[in-house]
Specification:
Length: 230
């Protein structure tokens, strides 16, 4: 059995205005709205100029796209397919979001970190996302070194590996009896010249989804940083 057309003669489009391919996104974005994602983004993320305008709408579009599987800027086009415009307002085109993302510096990434921590705290209040966090919370900090090319790369530096790169720290917060990996605040990037361990204490403090300062660890656990609890 063979296809009756050549590859170049076949194209597929999802453009029926009465159909929606990701109806479950309504519940996800409703929760994001209740947690104040857009308002927090407008308050905390400030790029300046016309590029930085409407940060809440742009970041909400990015979150929505990621929720339905987008892993690149062009994949965000999925938000404009079918009847999505009838379900959501304020959707930004992938080209607009791409310009927004390319404007970020290391300082703007720090603004996103603050947004992520504040949003996680609100989500924990609205849902049983971190049930048991009032008794014990564990932070797992994993450092990833990625080689980059070009000295103009923001945040890149020579570190202990001897190559030009950036060091990102992925922070995962888990509360017993929640399953490991519940509640991932995201990642933090910093110049690698500081080494993998440098800066982890401030990052851990920012990432704890609690208004209380981190407490003394109740038990040791394996990881890059031992015995860190919230």
């Amino acid at each position: 059995m063979r296809a009756p057309h050549t590859r170049g003669a076949v194209s597929v489009r999802f453009d029926d205005p009465g159909l929606v391919s990701h109806a479950g996104l309504v519940a996800v974005m409703r929760l994001a709205e209740d947690a104040g994602l857009s308002d927090l983004a407008d308050e905390l993320v400030r790029l300046g100029g016309s590029v930085g305008a409407n940060a809440g709408a742009k970041i909400s579009s990015i979150v929505a796209g990621m929720a339905v599987g987008a892993d690149s800027i062009s994949d965000l086009d999925v938000l404009g397919h079918g009847g999505m415009a009838g379900l959501f307002t304020g959707i930004r085109a992938s080209s607009t979001v791409g310009t927004f993302l390319r404007w970020f510096s290391m300082g703007h990434v720090a603004q996103l970190e603050k947004l992520s921590a504040r949003l996680l705290a609100r989500l924990a209040e609205l849902t049983p996302l971190l049930a048991g966090a009032d008794r014990l919370g564990l932070l797992d900090l994993d450092s990833k070194i990625s080689q980059v090319y070009g000295r103009g790369k923001d945040g890149a530096a020579f570190g202990y590996t001897g190559v030009l790169g950036s060091d990102a720290v992925k922070v995962t917060f888990t509360a017993e009896p929640a399953a490991p990996g519940t509640g991932k605040p995201g990642s933090s990037s910093r110049p690698r010249r500081r080494g993998s361990r440098a800066g982890r204490q401030p990052i851990a403090g920012r990432r704890c989804p609690s208004r209380k300062p981190p407490s003394t660890p109740r038990r040791p656990w394996s990881g890059p940083v031992r015995g860190r609890s919230c």
